[in-house]
Amino acid sequence: MTILGVALLALCTLIGVFLGDLLGVLLNVKANVGGVGIAMMLLIAARVWLVRHNRLGHATKLGVEFWASMYIPIVVAMAAQQNVVAAVSGGPIVIIAAVGSVLLCFAATALLGRIGGRPAQDSADIEHAGAVIAGDAEAPSPVRPTTAMRR
Amino acid sequence: MLHMLEHVFVEQSLVAAFAVIGGLMLVSHVIGKRLTGGRVHGSAIAIVLGLVLAYCGGLATGGKRGLADIPALAGIGLMGGAMLRDFAIVATAFEVDVIEARRAGLLGVVALALGTVLPFLVGTLTAVAFGYHDAVSITTIGAGAITYIVGPVTGAALGADSTVMALSIATGVTKAVMVMVGTPLVARLIGLDNPRSAMAYGGLMGTVSGVAGGLAATDPKLVPYGALTATFHTGIGCLVGPSLLFLIVRALVG
């Protein structure tokens, strides 16, 4: 049943966010500490368990992958409700602090990404994941590499 | 007639948002294919168009939530709000290559530490250069450079001035917008094309909305890896901002 996949996703998100809130209280922080990250790890663990016990049905998978494929449209909707006016009219101190930290972090990404050398060729699984998240996957089966658009 | 149409949009807000965003995505992909010959990713164009529309919406309504402040488009606020955004981010984890993610775990931790310290440093130095001398204001502006949530949380905890808080939030929002727009432009230059560098990138850039938008516009397969580290960023910033970082700044400026 498709709803089982959606429910699994919802359960992982709820537990993760709850644990993130709990961690925030324990650390005396007024914020959720890594709730979404914890939820992601729970979902990864659930997937591994389901695959190992051969319980990951096509429909269950569809329930999760539908939401993964809605990711980009949701991000576009998120972009459309940012307070861009405030960002543009922030003045020099805002621009300098933001530009400076973004450039510095891009440089650090380049540096860190090179540590340990470049990983081997992307596996078919990772390529398939890209196609699902891009909303281009034709069939939800990770066996064959998808030759979806992208450059 | 127009009034009735608006009524439908208001009543069916989320459904209307699906239709509007779908239309926006379609237009963006056509622009990407026809006008740039496929060089610019359709998603990147959609995100930039979204930001432009948010600017127009903000000017038109004077509100803080871009297009979502227009009553007929309020559904965009729900569709792109934190609840569905986090739900979709978690869903992308279903596609994560466990071995790859575990191998880059330590790298992610290093990136998170650097991603907190480096922007804070830039923010505090900028604040000092612009004539702020008290530890509370300097820390609040520095925290804003981490993310736009860390800024106000830190400022509120330290009792910062409201103008300083506004500056701090604006810095964070500007950073998020710059990450969304800038990532696809520099991706090749900084080697952002594999899960390992995506995890480093997520930890370093931090801002979940920035990372979510930046990776979506660059290469969708990297999304879960970047998001995995980025979601810890704000929590860590809120943890060290009003405590450790503030104490260091206070020790330095007296």
Automatic annotation (TrEMBL), chain A:
Record NCBIfam families: malonate_madL
Keyword Membrane among record annotations: yes
Key words, A-Z: Membrane, Transmembrane, Transmembrane helix
Record bears the keyword Manganese: no
TM region positions: 29-50, 62-81, 93-113
InterPro entries for the chain: Maln_transptMadL
Protein name per the record: Malonate transporter subunit MadL
Organism: Methylorubrum zatmanii
Gene: madL
UniProtKB/TrEMBL annotation, chain B:
InterPro entries: Mal/Na_symporter_MadM, Mal/Na_symporter_MadM_N
Coiled coil (residue ranges): none
Name the record gives this protein: Malonate transporter subunit MadM
Keyword Iron-sulfur carried by entry: no
UniProt KW keywords: Membrane, Transmembrane, Transmembrane helix
Entry's transmembrane regions: 12-31, 43-60, 72-94, 106-132, 164-186, 198-218, 230-253
Domain Malonate/sodium symporter MadM subunit N-terminal: from-to ranges: 6-252
Pfam families: MadM
